[in-house]
Design goal:
mainly alpha, 80% helix
Amino acid sequence: MAASISSARSSAQRVIPGFRLSLGFTLFYLGLIVLIPLSAVFLKTFTMTWEAFWNTVTSDRVLASYRLTFGASLIGALLNTVFGGIVAWILVRYKFPGKKLVDAMVDLPFALPTAVAGITLATLYSPNGWIGRFLEPLGLKVAFTPLGVVVALTFIGLPFVVRTVQPVLEEAEKELEEAAISLGASHWQTFTRVILPTILPALMTGFALAFARATGEYGSVIFIAGNMPMVSEITPLFMITKLEQYDYAGATAIAVVMLLLSFTLLLTINALQAWSRRNNEKR
């Protein structure tokens, strides 16, 4: 019996051709798609002297673009973590007319070309737009300001959180919530001590995906940002400007800094996510 189970497992593992062939194909594909382009970025940057590199990546205009890009990405990802979690909760736990339509609309930022999204947002939030005309008298200017960048990055990041949290909520055991309430726990205690620990790793994963997507976003931002240096210019746009000036080394230098900062932030988030999972397992 044990031998048959062992042979069944080994045959299941070998549905795809052997380990060496599969691993070789995996490494080749990753090298071709990921490692070679990233290596080219670093190699091009190494053609610069340290002084030229430092002056390029720490100029006032570049630092301002870093602050806007990473700051707006962080705010957008945090907003999506909160409200995306609420949207996922509503889609999983409630039944209402038009639920399928709302569920389909969540994926709209995935299907919509980024340039179309940017033009649409700029039109809506411009001073004469459908939404902007009501915000303008209140002193809120969205289009062509850093706030517009936050709006665009929040728009494109929402599906990452919703689609990451949604399956976790669907598989969550409602019996645990019912047991907590029957034992006298309030709704807030049930949420913070039963539900939140279950979905927290998924929320952090969604946050990481939304943040990573936002830091490299270009198409949906340039139309609503206004692209004013030192005010609403994002780092990807500044890199495009460098390329148009044939300053390839300068563009890759900025790309290297963005790459290292993004990797550092994502590794930190992954470490927090692993810590959260270990704590859940201990409980």
